[in-house]
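Second opinion, please. Pick holes in both lines of this record:
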Amino acid sequence: MLIVIGLGNPGREYERTRHNAGFDVIDVLSEKLSIPVRKSALHALIGEGFAFGKKIVLVKPQTFMNLSGQCVSEVLSWYKPQSSEVLIVYDDIDLPLGRLRMRLSGSAGTHNGMRSVVGCTGRTDLPRLRVGVGHKPDGWDLADWVLSRYATQEERAVQFEAFLKAADAVLKMAESGVQDAMQLANASSAAGETAKDR
């Protein structure tokens, strides 16, 4: 089994905003795997299917970002996966636009969605894939930045390519495990580039 949980905010007004990178990756996976994400359950939209000989569950929490942990806790309680069978995907303002960073575990850092996840589940051992949405420019309020859309066609193209790469990493995790997925995802970060680990 592999449960992929993409964090984001429900509603048309939040579509394609920086904070919804997790939802966007789930949408790409839904198309690649032909798994519709429509079933309403566990405070989420859920899709179930099979790939690489295992059950794949795609999850888009509908609790809004700051309450993501409520949904994730319910999903984990229902499916009862091992930590290696879970991947949480979300945006990261500490990574440059389009960069990916995958880790086996870690703190929530400053991300409110992951803070909610850790707070509700009590777990920091869940693998996570962070999608860079660019650093907050000077003068911007943080909430306004993460809820903004990509400003130019070039930014949108770079970010969509990141969603495709993130989906490829998820497929690699389903096919051959989290270590191979990490190698693929983290190869997108330039050698020597530094970013805060959260």
User: Anything to note?
Assistant: The first helix runs from residue 21 to 33.
